[in-house]
Amino acid sequence: MSRRLTISILIPCHNEEKMISACIDACLAQTRSADKIIVVNDGSIDKTGDILRSYGEKIEVVTTPLATGNKSYAQELGLQCIDTDVFIATDGDTLLDRHFVERIEHDFQEDESIAAVSGYVKSMPHNYITAYREIEYAIGQDVHKTAQACLGFLLVIPGCAGAFKTAIFRSHINFDHDTLTEDLDFTYKLHQAGLRIKYDPKAISYTQDPATLSSYINQMRRWYSGGWQNLRKHYNIVEHPNAALELSLTYMDGMFFSALFFFLPIISVAFFLKLLLVNAVVCVALGTYAAIMRQRIDLFFYSFLGTLFTSINGWVFLEQFVLEIVMRKRNLEWFHPERRAMRSPAL
């Protein structure tokens, strides 16, 4: 029998009065209790501080007088309070499945060589935008991330569903605060250090995704901007023996098909219309798969909006390439979408 690990949960939050109670309640309702729950109140000006104080000694709270402006600064402060073997990184708008801590302990005990665990993210249902994001999550994790795990190169440990060995994190990952996607930065650093990451689709978290098109676009801008920032920062990641295929699919093919989607009408309208038809058929097929796997019929109907979201994603992908790579206009402005008070199937 492996020894019992000590495990902390680290939650950075800023103005999360609508979600932070549900987030903490999910952490307290775990089948395997966390040894510590550390919440970093990053300069909140709403009722977040009052809510956190109501939990008393059930949680540890670190408060910054002013917002740091970047999630990684808050995480860095919280890490100073962690003395456990492992810590779980999640967000104030996220609810961990009640078996999450149990799964994480099992993963690290089962294979002591792994340095980190990547969990599985599901989107809380709300409207057509969150439904399409759930389709993206289903395909991205059931297909792409499963393939990445087989190849030995997970592209990213999600910021709302990741776990790390504390000692390894401190020795191999430092907080540079120079990208918008700190989770991708952490993942690349682990790969460059030759450390192993495990993907556990049973370690599930439920996150609150943007519910308006403007918020969706801003989130995609942050993700794609951070992606280009990290690729430029960790350019030698391409030397990783298993990185070439996934990075080429993500960036080279992404560039090609995004450009094709917007410039093809100039060359041939007829061929462009055929491309739209093929894209629509593929989107519906993916939506059908997601609807079956999630047992949500609404995902099938919303999959007909796939061409719209494909065009949005493609445009933002090219936009951020021009800004981050061509013009070198690094964007470090953190986007904080409006929250909704809700509970998750996890509870």
How would you portray this structure in words?
With 347 residues, the protein is α/β, with parallel strands linked by helices. The protein has two domains: 7-212, Spore Coat Polysaccharide Biosynthesis Protein SpsA, Chain A, CATH 3.90.550; 239-326, no CATH class. The chain has twelve helices and eight strands. The chain has an eight-stranded mixed β-sheet with strand order 3-2-1-4-7-6-8-5, with helices on both faces. Strand 2 (36-42), helix 2 (48-53) and strand 3 (60-64) form a beta-alpha-beta unit. Helix 5 (128-151) crosses helix 10. The protein starts with 6 loop residues before the first strand and ends in a 21-residue tail after the last helix. The mean pLDDT is 92.
